[in-house]
Structure to design on (85 residues):
């Protein structure tokens, strides 16, 4: 009876190892495929959002009036030599 139990356990263990040897590479390949699909999707998304951003900036430039150049913030603090005389 003990030999039968040992034989069944050894057979089950061998079968489990064989299933594992077959399953792990398949899982690895599936994960790599999903990884590649995600990277492709991200690059497509990035290209689309960059194009949309460029279009929005072009529209903003055409709609908004040109602004006056900003005056230097510290120009009124700096005294030139001619102003001192």
């Amino acid at each position: 009876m003990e030999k039968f139990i040992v034989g069944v356990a050894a057979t089950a263990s061998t079968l489990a190892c064989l299933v594992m040897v077959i399953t792990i590479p398949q899982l690895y390949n599936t994960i790599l495929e999903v990884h590649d699909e995600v990277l492709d999707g991200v690059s497509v998304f990035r290209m689309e959002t960059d194009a949309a951003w460029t279009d929005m900036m072009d529209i903003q430039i055409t709609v908004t009036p040109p602004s006056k150049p900003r005056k230097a913030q510290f120009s009124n603090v700096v005294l030139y030599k001619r102003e001192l005389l």
The radius of gyration is 36 Å. DSSP finds two helices and no strands in the chain.
